[in-house]
Amino acid sequence: MIAARQLTRRFDARVAVEDVSFEVGRAEIVALLGPNGAGKTTTLRMLAGLISPSSGSVAIDGIVLDTATATDARKRVGFLTEAPGLWDRLTVRENLRVYARLYGLSSPDAVVDRSLVQFDMKEHDSTVAAELSKGTRQKVAIARALMHEPKVLLLDEPTSGLDPEVSRGVRRILREKRAAGCSILVSTHNLDEAERIADRVAVLDRRLLALDPPGVLRRRLTTGRLLIRLAGELERMLSNLRAFDPEARVEDGAIVVRLANLERDTPDIVAALTSAGARVLEVRPEVPALEDVYIHLVGERTGGD
User: Fold this and answer.
1) Which CATH superfamily, name and number, covers 2-219?
2) What average pLDDT score do residues 166-187 get?
3) pTM of the model
């Protein structure tokens, strides 16, 4: 489990993170979203024990981080930094083996072999890191973060530079880790990825602006519009709906009706359509994309539109 309590980090006069509190439970993935400079990487580095907060506290798997406990807590964490940070003159195997030994694993070569197979890197076993593509370097870094079976994962842009097939494989591994009880915090700019893997989404812009499941975040920005798809007769049925919304109109093959209370008025709309002989294919509220919610929240923070 990851617990941040009133985390603040200053760099001289600049406040990078201010009064941020949240938790990531066992068997949960939380996606951390925010614009460049929002404090995402600084937050991850504080949670990993690499830098100390100016104020506030961090607990990893029940251990409160301080100078006495940081080493023990870090053993429970798999941390992927934004830059892979490999030793360029070492081979892929040597890079992984160094970390297997640093983690104190009893059979480092066996663990390295398993990681190479898991990430489809056997062919790069003897390749020095300087000769690897960006995507393969990223795979080595992810394998390194996972090889000691940590209870907590802190991942900064894990699928950066990866092709769609490998990205899908990384998401599968993260779901498997979640199912095994791992607590996972993923910083990403990829809103589609956040929606695919995250149980909850945290929006950060120095302060924590929101922390909710993706669906809840979208409902916070409800448009009040009902989308109605019919089997033909759109214009004729449109006149039957003007009593609910005088400005009801057809958009992209569907009737759009704006309602003051979707939950209250939708059954009446369906009844009016069926009594008029409409063949109803779909009636659903318009739900904004996660990207729209994100832009709205960050815009509120910066005073934008």
Assistant:
1) P-loop containing nucleotide triphosphate hydrolases (3.40.50.300)
2) 92
3) 0.78
